[in-house]
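Field notebook, page 260. I keep forgetting to write these up properly, so this time I am using the form the group agreed on. The chain and the ligand, calcium ion, are recorded exactly as supplied. Prediction of the bound pose follows.
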Amino acid sequence: MGGLSGWSGSMLALLLIFSMQTGNGLVNAAGPPDCSFIQSFPSVEPSGVYTIQPDGFSYSFQVYCQMGANGLWTVIQKRTGGAVAFDREWAAYKNGFGFVSWDHWLGLEKISAMTKSKRWKLRVDLWDFEGGSAYAEYEDFRVGDESTNYRLSVGRYRGTAGDAIKGEYPGINQNGFGFSTFDRDSDGCNPCIFGDIAINSCTDFDRGGWWYSKCGSASLNGDWHPKGDNIGWSSGLHWRTWKGPAPYSAKATRMMITPM
Ligand SMILES: [Ca+2]
């Protein structure tokens, strides 16, 4: 009898785990192509982890769906602290890393697949250490495939944080640029001259991986810095049209997308 109850207990535990994993209400195992397809119900907190499978993508994967204007948005980046390292190589930025329910980078291959068809909007949310926040939204957000180094395309901007992607200085514009990591460089610097400093790789200073173009004004995948030690670092979570002139590293960031 002891063995039987042990077996029953194991089955119950398995059933509970299964229920938790499928408790998001999805019937289709592969899931919808993005979070905007997920219906929310008034009695249930809609934001959470779901399984999706973009059109033409060969496998399903988990994402965090965040409630926003017009329903659930698919989160592609989140930073809230320094526990998840963002100073990673090309393959990591390609495939994604971290924890989708927490700090993570979803992965360029997934973002590229999602934005290949339809028109998409990108929303960037920024939080400072003083209780403030700001946002930037871009129409027609798209990331090319790996043959383009996951080239960034953004259209019309609106928001309160300023348009750091298109930049604050003439000739420095991340729109239309490929992605760079320390082991794959398409940042347009060879070298770039800033004052009396010659820079060959933006990742040496800004760190992380980003669509660096002569480095530029946006950089949200650098090193996270704690309160009181977050101003003046060349690396950080920078959105230079929002805070400056000394580099200000944000307390938290989030990037998410939805079809337009
Ligand atoms: Ca370079």
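OBSERVATIONS:
- The chain has a mean pLDDT of 89.
- Helices lie at 2-21, 90-95, 108-115, 202-205.
FOLLOW-UP: compare against the apo run.
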